Amino acid sequence: MKQDEYQTPEEFNQSDDMAVFSKKLADTIFETEIDLTLDILQKPFDALASGTVLENVPIIKSIYAGVKNVIAIREWAFAKKLVHFLYEFSHGQFDEEKIHRHKERLRKPKYRDKVMEHVSTMLDKLISTYKARILARLYVAYINRHLEWVEFVDLSQCLDQLNTGAIQFLRELGSTNRWQSPRTRRNEEHLLIACGIAFTQNEPYSVIGEFFMVNDLGRKLYIHGIANATLDVEDNDEPEGAYLEDH
């Protein structure tokens, strides 16, 4: 395989190149000094990867070199989500001691591969740049030790399963610190329950809505992934819906 030929994270996981990919991803996240701005995020990937501050970012450069002459929808999608992840991560508030400790731990290949494999796999699975930016905030929370590793993994998987249309409902509950549904909203409640971040008390005997409650995972997803996030910029790949109406 040529050095700059791109593989999806899933393909890397099935080869001997995962360690190479993990190191490149870690270097992209932590070692590359880039000044991402909102106008850059709004560019299409081909324009974004050529002639901007991103053209020399390790993974972006590899993806662009590998797919610019072929139809590779999945690779383009991964790259776009990665750029939004990097933007949100670069705006994270870090405890200097904790991020230094995290970088030191990433020098150990076994730990670096575990973390970067999880991040890249989740980025590959997520359906939108909106979720990629929430994932970045969860990673920041993990680095700052607000989340344990198991919690970060669990919340990443919940995020993957969460219907995007239910995010606004979770934001409404979290912004008022009222983790019970203020009224019966069956559709949104079912969507939160389906991804494992809410429940109904005494189910199946209770009427859904009367005892609907967001659980601890759901609260942490809101607090560390959604609250106060820079998620107020309309993304071209996001369908219009209730969760974007407050823009």
Lay out the secondary structure.
Layout lengths: L8 H5 L4 H14 L6 H4 L3 H4 L9 H10 L5 H18 L5 H10 L3 H17 L3 H15 L5 H13 L5 H9 L10 H9 L3 E3 L11 E3 L1 H11 L21
Antiparallel strand pairs: 1-2
Q: Give a short account of the largest sheet.
A: 2 strands, antiparallel
How does the overall form come out from the CA principal axes? globular
- Tell me what portion of residues adopts beta-strand conformation: under 5%
Determine the N-to-C terminus distance. 45 Å
Can you give the helix content as a percent range?
55-70%
The SSE order reads HHHHHHHHHHHHEEH
Number of domains: 2
Global mean pLDDT: 75
Cα-atom Rg, whole angstroms? 19 Å
**Classification by helices and strands:** mainly alpha
Strand order in space, largest sheet? 1-2
Q: Tally the helices: what do you get?
A: 13
Q: How many E-type strands?
A: 2
List unreliable stretches of 5+ residues. 1-6, 12-16, 47-53, 66-71, 232-247
Concise description?
The protein is an all-alpha fold and 247 residues long.
Can you describe this structure?
- Strands 1-2 form a two-stranded antiparallel ribbon.
- The protein has two domains: 9-148, no CATH class; 164-244, no CATH class.
- With 247 residues, the protein is mostly helical.
- Helix content is 56%, strand content 2%.
- The protein is built from 13 helices and two strands; from the N terminus they run H-H-H-H-H-H-H-H-H-H-H-H-E-E-H.
